[in-house]
Amino acid sequence: MNISDSLGIKTNNALEPKPNLRGNAKQTADQFEALFVQSMVEGMRKSADMGQGQGLFGDGPGADTYTQWFDNFMSEHLADNGSIGLSDTLMKEFERAGQIPAEDKAGEESEES
Fold first, then answer.
1. Measuring CA to CA, which residue among 25, 41, 40 is closest to residue 87?
2. For residues 106 and 32, is the Cβ–Cβ distance under 8 A?
3. Is residue 103 in some structural domain?
4. Does residue 9 lie in a domain region?
5. Angle formed by the axes of helices 86-96 and 21-47, to 10°?
6. 113 falls within a domain
7. What's the structural domain count of the chain?
């Protein structure tokens, strides 16, 4: 409850900033896609047989750091270029479920919400 409510003062809601639902949803969908792809890349890397029990970067000092960097880079690259498409699918589902306003042809949020 804000102070204007407690004092009985009516405010004009038009002056309050509208939350950027579409932008927040897109950011969340992109983060989810990156996390999902990172998990997928890590699983694929772990399942690859490099022979003699060594990983992609060997088993020496720093190998775990290079492995983490590799997983992060690959997941960010795959998620950023849109080749997976999970983020776009999530956005369409958010729209279909009415959780975010539909995007109009010009790329702006519709005013129906």
1. 25
2. no
3. no
4. no
5. 140
6. no
7. 1
Predicted confidence at residue 102, as pLDDT, reads 85
pLDDT number for residue 96: 92
Whether pTM exceeds 0.85: no
Structure tokens at 53: 């029990």
56-99 pLDDT, tens digit per residue, is 777 778 888 888 888 888 888 887 787 788 989 999 999 999 88
User: Where in the sequence is the domain holding 82, given as residue range(s)?
Assistant: 19-47+56-96
Residues in the chain: 113
Q: What's the one-letter identity of residue 62? A: G
Q: Which strand (E) or helix (H) includes residue 94? A: helix 86-96
- Return the bridge partners of 109, or none: 103
User: How far is Cα 50 from Cα 55, in angstroms, rounded to an integer?
Assistant: 6
- For residue 102, being part of any structural domain is answered with no
Q: Cβ of 105: how many Cβ atoms within 10 Å?
A: 5
Q: What is the pLDDT of residue 106?
A: 59
Q: Which of these, 67, 73, 69, 84, lies nearest to 33 by C-alpha position?
A: 84
